[in-house]
User: Fold these one by one.
Assistant:
Number 1:
Amino acid sequence: MHGGCNCGEIRYLVTRAPLTAYICHCHLCQKRTGSAFSMSIVIPADGLEVTAGNPIRKERPIPGGGSNVSLLCPSCYSRISTLREGRPTINVRAGTLDDTSWIKPVAQLWTSSAQPWALVDGILSYEEQPSDFSALLAAWKGAASRK
Ligand SMILES: [Zn+2]
Ligand SMILES: [Zn+2]
């Protein structure tokens, strides 16, 4: 799967199958996207290959230790991905993929700060950040096997 930033300077390739997809209603995602929520796919950390451009590595400390490293386009500042240090997976901002038609999120996070009209019926829902993603991975697998 190919993707890239808004201006086209950064291009990337996803080389591993996604493990899950979700949307996040947290305030940070609302600020960052200027929208009601963000949408991510989760892939193994070695599954993202930048094929054009030199993304900015933006580090943000996480309360409680560690940090998130995001890749951004140096020209249009589109955010491509976020990796939490030490995790075996990486989150790709789903909207930066060239083809987003196949993505159906299986979960929504931070419903406590969601715009009421943006809540999705019939998917896993968490008021805040889930403590682990095993249910999200299982739901994604289940959805794939029903296709
Ligand atoms: Zn760009
Ligand atoms: Zn969020």
Number 2:
Amino acid sequence: MQRVPSTITLNVSVSDGVFTSTAQVHIRVERANLHAPQFTQGMYEADLQENAPVGSKVIAIRAQDADPGPFGDVRYVLLSDSARDLFSIDGNGQIKTLERLDREERSEMVLSIAAVDAGGRSGYCSVRVTILDENDNAPQFGASEYHASMRSEVEPGTLVTQVQAWDLDQGANGQVSYSLYSEASMQVTELLDIDPDSGWVRLLDREVQSSYHITVRASDQGVPVRLSSLVNITITVLDINDNPPVFERRDYLATLPEDVAVGTEVVQVYAASKDIGTNADIYYNIRSGNQQGHFTININTGDMHLDYYLRPTFLSTPTMAQNLFIHAYSGQK
Ligand SMILES: [Ca+2]
Ligand SMILES: [Ca+2]
Ligand SMILES: [Ca+2]
Ligand SMILES: [Ca+2]
């Protein structure tokens, strides 16, 4: 290609046939901006580790401009507003981070970048940045503590309750498994266990106790560090009414003088049940022996009173015995 001189000098003369005038015209030749910058790729792909320190290198991109001189000098401009706080790009097309990036907030970003020459011509490309997961979230249980109940007569093997935890991380970093907290007492681990995948708590063996307290751990499968959380579960055993009340004594004996006043307390009977809660509430009535209605019993306390004036009836005999059968029952009044 022939080199174009940077200035051209023209000698110009004009004549009207009589007079001639001559002038010299200097023309400075400027190069034309023939080429727009062009990226080597329209789309670049880059991976960036989550939480990488500020200033980490993401990728270097490059645009070329065939013009010599300033029209061939390229500078890079990050066009995406949202990316400008997070990434920088320097004169060599090197993209670096300005912030630590959180994959759980945004796992992928596409940056639009322009290469601009001194003449204002430009070319464009995109850079897709994929944020790679780091195990930076522990599993979180759905509740701060769990309460469940089971009936006292359930068979071993029964599923009692289920806990669930979520982990925001990706893949193994977010895969949750459940276990009984290893510091749980031996006693608890013999009575209950938990399915590592589903979080279902299962009864292994029954024991006479009104509640169980266990601690469950949810762990992720992160490498190299596994993260975990703990939660407490209280399981209340709902009693069934299967223990009939037993009187503390088989026979109660009361002796009354013949002139006893109406309303006098005769005796107080007492029965108890091995059940718990309302199933241990005992009620009393007189089952038989009280056909004349001489005695009353307090249904709640077992307190028996004389409800009759004895003297007229009993005068004829020196002593008189009366057998009463008291019934104690539990549950509903
Ligand atoms: Ca150019
Ligand atoms: Ca994160
Ligand atoms: Ca993460
Ligand atoms: Ca995790």
